[in-house]
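Meet the record:
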Amino acid sequence: MSIFKSLSLVAVICVFSISSVLAGPANKIHPDKLVNAYLVVEKLSSDGNVNAVSNKKTMYSFLNEDQKNLVNKIITLNKSNGSNL
């Protein structure tokens, strides 16, 4: 019976160690592709692309509240700094 306990303990330790290895680095922020796509479309629309203006309105409707706040913050910072995307 103790053999099964030790084998199960080894199996649990292996599962936790494998899952921690596959989890990736801590505190790494994965960029939001929808936010990045919206920022590209916003840049194109500010350059005068007519198709980008209509796409910008459509893409903005797909953003959730957190994404909208992030997009508005990034656009405001870029306009205040005068920097490009």
Observations:
- Helices lie at 2-22, 33-46, 50-62, 65-81.
